[in-house]
Design goal:
single chain; mainly alpha; 16 helices
Length: about 325
Amino acid sequence: MLIREQLEEREKEILAPWAAFSVNSKGREREEAQDDLRPVFQRDRDRILHSKSFRRLKDKTQVFIMPDGDHYRTRMTHTLEVSQNARTIAKALRLNEDLTEAIALGHDLGHTPFGHAGERVLNRLCSEGFNHAVQSVRVVEILEKDGKGLNLTWEVRDGFLNHQTAGNPATLEGRIVRYSDKIAYFHHDMDDAIRGGILTEADVPEEIASVLGHTKEERLDTFVHDIIATSMGRPVVEMSPAVAKAFSDFRKFLFESVYTNPKAKGEEKKAMGVVETLYQHYLANIDELPPYLQKRREMGDSNERVVCDYISSMTDRFAIARYEDIYIPRCWQ
């Protein structure tokens, strides 16, 4: 028996009946031979980890644009914290940890430079719209590996598509990531806001703190333990009513105090201007796009869509560098 087959058998022994089993996957868009060592979800996790789009997350904004300090989160560190939270919950609930980790590691692959600011610009400018969750699926289906894609399983792609608040993941593992994404950014965005002098723990309303805790560590512990305790032994992933309400209230508090705070968003208008200028430039100079995107045009994708593909793939630094190359005069040599 192959090692992969042994691992698939082990899943049947260990995982809850309502877990997503590797052998029951709906499969890939392009059929391919099974690996001798790794079940399908583990294989997907590895493909994501080795992708170029994953590596670029290290230079993409989480909340603070171009922060002055080494310890502020990036889209990469956010992704790793989502993965850690999600794996802890999945293991405790006897759900598929490989599927959970694959969804967590890839859920933001389609994110733009400069975080949600860049996303809002592309969504406003592109007549077809732009959403980073949809783009994450597009990245792994057709953009990675110079247009070949990663050919991931249906369950992983469904988790990407449905990780946002309005999403409804088809698997419990996807629902874990949907919660873990928000838990992670609640935790680290509050931490970064304190580091940046925007908030203190005393600013958190007592009606929230009395339920969730008075420190970021207590809140993280409350969220994770509550999901596990509420969902244990049941085919659901959910919070208790009291924690769910405090969860929602804390999200509103962060939006009002951090995500729309002028101090946190001081450079946002400049970043949005860079994205808009690049979009208009490449739309007018479509031949400057890389060959794999020219091929997408030949296959029927609109100019607007491939320009969004190119800009959303950029890191913050690369976007600024392209802006400077195009618009900032250089010394003549």
